[in-house]
Amino acid sequence: MTSSLLTAKNLTFGYDDVPILKNIFLKIEAGEFIGLIGPNGSGKSTLLKLLAGILDAPAHSIYFKQNDIRQVPRKRLAQSIAWTPQEQNLAFSFKNSEVVLMGRHPHLSLFTMESEKDFAIAQKAMETTHTLPFADRYFNEISGGEKQRVLIASAVAQEPEMMALDEPTSALDIKYQMQILEILKHLNEDKNTTIILAMHDLHLASKFCKRLVLLDNGKIVRDGPPDKVLEPGILEEVYNIDIKLYRDPNGGVLVSPLLSDLSSTAEFE
Question: What backbone phi and psi angles, to 5 degrees, belong to 20?
Fold first, then answer.
């Protein structure tokens, strides 16, 4: 076993005898920025939850720093891997500052209250994610983009080695999408935080992620740099649609169905 941060080895998983993931092999090194892409139902969210320890993986199928993830104490795992789900509403009314402070819980002992250090870390996380202006507002009263930034702030306050995010830009307008991805880019490049996220937007995935993992029918069909994964043949096969690819001069690859009449001098040959 190598010293990878996370390794999935022959991972097969399903619900009620229905397979969702089949023979997944995946190594995640510290400091990577990885995007999980693929059609709906391809297994992205399930794989992400297994890697983050949200779902119980079969024995000897996922290793965290050479240890079977099932044997890693939950507290240690929670300190190392932050999970940000798609769901954004909370059952109870909390101020955004309180939601962010919850990110410190994995570092506290039972019945221990937050210290000045914990409050300082939470405030710094809110500064990083530009959420301080609405720290005293209630979570369920702010916009979708603001909620996503608060959840990311809570994950940042956790001071994890890795952040796992399930569709962090879904249903958001382009302004909030860019804000959130720029925040993750900063954490990855300046804090060396390992980022792995599920995404549908192939252009944004190719623009921000250094590595893409393409899933289809519960299997990894392509894994590598964006320009090696986003190729017409494999995308047409996976998404079952004719497409053209265009190089974005500002970075990344634009994916267009043939029904769209996009024109570009930078079209792939």
Answer: -105, -45
